Amino acid sequence: MHYNRPIVLSIAGFDPSGGAGLLADIKTIEQHHCLGMGVISALTVQTENQFISVEWLSAKKIMEQLKPLLKVYEVNVFKIGIIESLDTLLKVATFIKKTNPNAKIVWDTVLSATAGKKFFNELNKEKLNKILKLIYLITPNANEVKLLAGIDNEKKAAIELAKHCKVLLKGGHTKRKGIDTLYDGITVSEIKPHIKRLHPKHGTGCILSSAITCSVAKNKDSLFILCTKAKLYVESIMATNRNLLAYHVQ
Questions:
Q1: DSSP-H helix ranges across the chain
Q2: Pick from 145, 227, 220, 149: which is nearest to 182 by CA?
Q3: Three-state SS at 185
Q4: 95 Cβ partners below 8 Å, 6+ apart?
Q5: Could you give the CA distance from residue 92 to residue 94 in angstroms, rounded to a whole number?
């Protein structure tokens, strides 16, 4: 079935507040003039500032949701958010690439909730490397990139992971706050903030990765330009109000 807009499919958790996860992804996707589709990877109980609990969906349940969509629709780009484990992620990513070898996957490497809830209990390096070879881009913050690489220096950790896939190291948890850095395996490029007066928002990591995924689906520009445009979008929604939930439509 063909549509004039590219389809962007998000595999993410359901956040009832709509600030993060699947609902935030769909808001972002539609604002980028793509057709948004979603598959649930987890059911969470949370608000904009409190994470209460999570119920994970197995790889089997995730793939059961994916199969009918991929039979009917042409989907070339995927965003993956919270997911139970590396085992689950490997099975899902492998399924996507077997179904569509040319698919590009953006993984928002959420290892814990902002409120402190940790998700991944183990990070097997061999398994992680297998996953990264299936991934187009990961978007970790400084804490996540160090955990994933097992290196206690975010720059060295990003360089190590960039041997397997492209890495956008977010600057929110670094000394150079607000400056993101793209490692594409060859070059290292900084993306500086453009709006100075911003208000913290719930789900900015989800929104950024979804915005990048949309740009990948629509554009032939360099990844650096696409990530820069996505950062501008996140900054624009962070400036919409003083509360933790962003307005996507002004």
A1: 21-31, 59-72, 86-99, 125-132, 142-149, 154-161, 204-218, 223-238
A2: 227
A3: coil
A4: 59, 63, 66
A5: 5
Print pLDDT tens along the chain (250 aa). 778 999 999 999 999 999 999 999 999 999 999 999 999 999 999 999 999 999 999 999 999 999 999 999 999 999 999 999 999 999 999 999 999 999 999 999 998 766 556 777 678 999 999 999 999 999 999 999 999 999 999 999 999 999 999 999 998 756 667 899 999 999 999 999 988 778 999 999 999 999 999 999 998 889 999 999 999 999 999 999 999 999 998 6
Closest by CA position to 75, among listed 94, 101, 57: 101
Domain ranges within the chain, ordered by starting residue? 7-238
CATH fold of the domain at 7-238: UDP-N-acetylmuramoyl-L-alanine:D-glutamate ligase (3.40.1190)
| pTM of the predicted model as reported, rounded to 2 decimal places | 0.95
DSSP 186-238: S-EEEE--S-S-----TTHHHHHHHHHHHHHHH--S-HHHHHHHHHHHHHHHH
CA pair distance 248, 27, nearest whole angstrom = 7
- Other Cβ atoms within 10 Å of 74 Cβ, number: 11
The SS3 assignment for 182 reads strand
Q: Token pair for residue 82?
A: 């919270």
Alpha-carbon gap, residue 163 to 52, rounded angstroms: 36
Q: Position 101: which residue type? A: P
Give residue 197's pLDDT. Answer: 77
